[in-house]
Amino acid sequence: MSDIKQHLDKLTQELNRGTLTIGVLSQLSKPQYGYSLVTKLNGEGIHVEPGTLYPLLRRLEKQGLLESTWNTDEARPRKYYMLSKRGAEVFELLWQEWEEMVDSLNHLIGLEKGGDSDGNHR
User: Fold this and answer.
1) What would the DSSP string read from start to end of 51-67?
2) C-alpha torsion sign, points 15, 38, 34, 55
3) What is the pLDDT of residues 16-72, one digit of tens each?
4) CA-atom Rg of the chain in angstroms
C-alpha cells in the first residue's frame, strides 16, 4: 500500500469516527436493534462494523442520549435503542452544527478552487 493511500485511510477513518455519531442518532427516532442499524447504515453507504457500533450505542446510552428496551418475544432477545428526549434535542443541535460546518467547508473549498465569495466558480 502506498504512503498516500495509508495516510488517506487514516484520515478517512478519523472523519468517519466523527460523523458516525450523527448518522446513528439520525436513525433512532424509531426503535432499532443493533444489527438492523448496522444493515441500514451499510445500505446507505456508511460502513460500520458491529464491533464499532455496539460500543458507540452503549456510550450514547450512558450519556443519556439513547434509551433501550429488551424485546424477548422472539426466539432471540434483542435490545432496541431509541433517542431519548435529550438525545433528540442533542441530535437537532448537532445537525445544525453539521450543516454550518458543511456550508463553511464548501465555501472554503470553493474559494480555493477558484470560486468567488459566494462559492461560484469563475
Assistant:
1) HHHHHHHHHHHHTTSEE
2) negative
3) 888 999 999 999 999 999 999 999 999 999 999 999 999 999 999 999 999 999 999
4) 18
Give, as one character, the DSSP assignment of residue 74.
S
> Is residue 97 within 8 Å of residue 103, measured between CB atoms?
no
* pTM, entire model: 0.81
Predicted pLDDT at 56 = 96
Yes or no: say if 53 and 39 are a contact pair by the CB < 8 Å rule. no
> Can you say whether the dihedral through the CA atoms of 60, 66, 71, 75 is positive or negative?
negative
Q: What is the mean pLDDT of the chain?
A: 91
Cα Dmax for the chain: 62
Query: For every residue of 6-20, which 3-state class applies, written as one string?
Result: HHHHHHHHHHHHHHH
Rounded-to-integer distance, Cα 73 and Cα 35, Å: 17
